[in-house]
Amino acid sequence: MSLFNTFKSAGSAMQAQSQRLNTVASNLANAETAATKSDDVYKARKVVFEAELEKALPGSAAMAQGVNVKEVVTSDAQPRKIYDPKHPMADEQGYVYMPDINAVEEMVDMMAASRSYQTNAEVMNTAKQLMLKTLNMGQ
After folding, report:
1. Which residues pair with 68 in a beta bridge?
2. In terms of Cα–Cα distance, which of 61, 50, 64, 67 is closest to 1?
3. What is the pTM (predicted TM-score) of this model?
4. How far, in Å, are 57, 85, 86 from residue 14 at the CA level?
5. Does the structure show a pLDDT above 90 at 53?
C-alpha cells in the first residue's frame, strides 16, 4: 500500500465517522422529543459501514482500501409511553410518546466515532510527515 492509498483510506474513514457523528448528534437532539401518537415518534438512526475493497488480481485476496457508509438504518424499538396528562402533547388518556433512545449509549457512540476520526487524522498527518522526510532524503 502506497502512502497515497493511506490518504484515501484514512480520508474515507474520516468521512464515514463524520456521518456517524452527525447521526448520533441527531439522535441526541431528538431523544426527548414528544409525540401524541406512537407512529409519530422520532426513530433513532445508526450508520452501517462497509469495507471498500480494491480489485484483486486473479488468485489473490482483495485488500481493504477504505470504508463507505453502506446505509443508515432506522431503529425498530418501541417508543416509551409516559403518563403525563399536563404535557401539551398528551393524548386523550394523558400519555406522551417518547423515542427509546439511551443518551449514555449515544454518548459512548459519539466518543468512539470522535476518537476514530482523530486517529485517522493522525494517520494522515503521519503519512504526510513520512512523505516529506522521503523527499528530503536526497538533500
Report:
1. 50
2. 64
3. 0.83
4. 28, 45, 45
5. no
